[in-house]
Design goal:
This is Glycine/D-amino acid oxidase-like deaminating enzyme. One of its GO terms (cellular component) is cytoplasm. The protein is of the alpha/beta class. It has a domain at 26-129 and 200-262 and 367-414: FAD/NAD(P)-binding domain. It is 33% helix and 21% strand. It has twelve helices and 19 strands. Strand 14 and strand 15 (300-303) form a beta hairpin. The structure holds flavin-adenine dinucleotide. Flavin-adenine dinucleotide is lined by residues 47-53, 72-75, 79-82, 84-88, 90, 223-224, 247-251, 255, 267, 269, 300, 312, 360-362, 384, 386, 388-392, 394. Flavin-adenine dinucleotide binds next to helix 2, strand 4, strand 13, strand 17 and helix 10.
Length: 469
């Protein structure tokens, strides 16, 4: 990979690159809020104005309108993954079911899955209630097998679905899968209903408006340099509060003492120009399912209401010493690989242009499991580590943090991700070398499977074990 259809001309460069994301640009100019100007006091201070921080503020203000709540954001609302993601509002348990079941029992994991299914609907209900037009369509999620090894992996997912029926996954024949979305070389598929496609930035900014309407103060261009019990220090002043909550996800590595907590992994995306009606007639995709295939280096896609395809996944997964992209700027190898992939899935789109490419950063814990933490004694809390599946989980995390901070003992405060901890990532150069080796292995495994290997490559299995995925 990339594997361009033979004879096809190289795709032209994207019209726009970086600028946070297509989704943020699509909103047009949105003024950035004022920074913190002087020291302040509050009941709760939240660091980070992505979905986690905003949902936490939203539910705290709802649970107890008398609370004074401050949100501090280093750049602007939605600057992080929340303004850049693939727009899958889906029911995934980050890190999977089995690891949690081994530690917490099967029933706890069933409750977790049921809650995540309901969380998809909770997000849609809040959008309706608050007048947030996130362009949501709940069409479920389609996973497609495109070679023999991938087709055989479907059986593994079917076994898993029998064990965890709450997830709602059903097997599709190749014809059934193609009837939904006509992906080239489809050999079978899986579908589950608990997923909606959304416009990520419209959700983030709409939520920020809803939060402000409830009296929450959001300060933008205000970077927090340190967090301690009772205080968040910024470049402009300090905010003192009984409760200090960290919602910094992939950027957490920059905070003092947290360099090795969550690995900042990059994910990159492109979005096409609108396709023609003839192309859509060939592709189908009338149900707006979110879409991915069973490659090891997976790719995820959605169809937008105005007829574009947004697809993401490949690229440089990790930069030396946890360095970040500049406002989502993406290298040519990455966007051209994604551009080749979308044409491979849908040859009918020919040389349709790429409107925009961008990248973002996710937080990956050593055990690949997200977490919600709160210490009632110190008032310190945090949520994150969602890997690539936080759009729904952030809502549940925000509700859970709100319950924990207000001292409510509820079913969601007892879910298995609450309070769980994991070991830290290895120091450099091990971290950099291991990430490169693992992703190289996944790419190698995908190539072998597309060249005719009929079972899952052993190399991929070994990479899974090493990465702890
Ligand atoms: C390209 C891409 C595609 C993805 N696709 C999907 C998908 O389709 N479905 C899905 O479920 N998940 C997806 N994800 C993951 C999902 O977007 C995230 O899990 C989710 O948005 C995390 O929200 P968050 O609020 O915790 O983090 P973020 O959105 O990253 O927010 C953290 C915020 O904290 C701010 N911040 C950080 N440090 C500081 C500081 N020191 N001081 C002040 N502010 C600070 C940042 O600027 C940022 O705004 C994707 C992620 C990426 C990057």
């Amino acid at each position: 990979m990339p594997r361009r259809a033979s004879g096809a001309a190289p795709a032209p460069a994207p019209a726009r690159n970086g600028e946070i994301s297509y989704w943020m640009s699509d909103l047009g100019p949105v003024p950035v809020g004022e920074p913190l100007a002087v020291d302040a006091e509050a009941d709760v201070v939240i660091v980070g104005a992505g979905y986690t921080g905003l949902w936490t503020a939203y539910y705290l203000a709802e649970r107890d309108p008398s609370l004074s709540i401050v949100v501090l954001e280093q750049h602007r609302v939605g600057y992080g993954a929340s303004g850049r993601n693939g727009g899958w509002l889906t029911n995934t348990i980050t890190g999977g079911h089995d690891g949690y079941a081994a530690k917490h029992g099967v029933e706890a994991v069933r409750a977790f899955q049921t809650e995540l299914n309901a969380t998809v609907d909770e997000v849609l209900a809040v959008c309706a209630r608050e007048g947030i037009d996130a362009e949501a369509t709940k069409g479920g999620s389609l996973l497609v097998a495109r070679n023999e090894a991938q087709r055989r992996r479907v059986a593994k997912y079917v076994d898993h679905a029998e064990k965890w029926p709450e997830e709602g996954v059903v097997e599709l024949s190749a014809a059934e899968s193609r009837a939904r979305v006509n992906v080239a070389e489809t050999r079978g598929g899986l579908w589950q209903p608990h997923c909606a496609r959304i416009h990520p930035a419209k959700l983030a900014l709409g939520l920020a408006d809803a939060v402000r309407r409830r009296g929450v103060r959001i300060y933008e261009n205000t970077r927090v340099t340190d967090i301690e019990q009772g205080v968040a220090r910024t470049e402009h002043g300090v905010v003192r509060a009984r409760h200090v909550l960290r919602a910094t996800e992939g950027f957490t590595t920059r905070l003092p003492g947290r360099k090795r907590d969550w690995l900042p992994l990059n994910s990159s995306m492109i979005i096409t120009e609108p396709l023609t009606d003839d192309m859509w007639a060939e592709i189908g995709w009338q149900g707006f399912e979110t879409l991915e295939d069973l490659s090891h280096v997976y790719a995820y896609a959605q169809r937008t209401p105005d007829g574009r395809i947004a697809i993401g996944g490949r690229g440089t997964p990790y930069h030396w010493a946890s360095r970040f992209d500049t406002d989502g700027l993406t290298d040519e190898a990455t966007w051209s690989s994604l551009s080749a992939l979308v044409r491979e899935w849908f040859p009918v789109i020919g040389d349709v242009g790429i409107a925009h490419t961008w990248s973002g950063v996710l937080g990956v814990p050593r055990n690949w499991r997200a977490t919600v933490q709160y210490d009632a004694e110190t008032g310190l809390g945090a949520a994150g580590g969602y890997v690539g599946t936080g759009v729904t989980a952030t809502n549940l995390a925000g509700r859970t943090l709100a319950d924990l901070v207000t001292g409510a003992d509820t079913p969601i405060t007892r879910l298995p991700w609450v309070g769980q901890r994991t070991r830290r990532w290895e120091p450099e150069p091990l971290r950099w070398v291991a990430t490169r080796v693992i992703y190289g292995a996944y790419r190698w495994a995908d190539r072998s499977e597309f060249r005719g290997l009929t079972h899952t490559s052993r190399v991929a299995r070994i990479a899974d074990v090493i990465s702890g995925r």
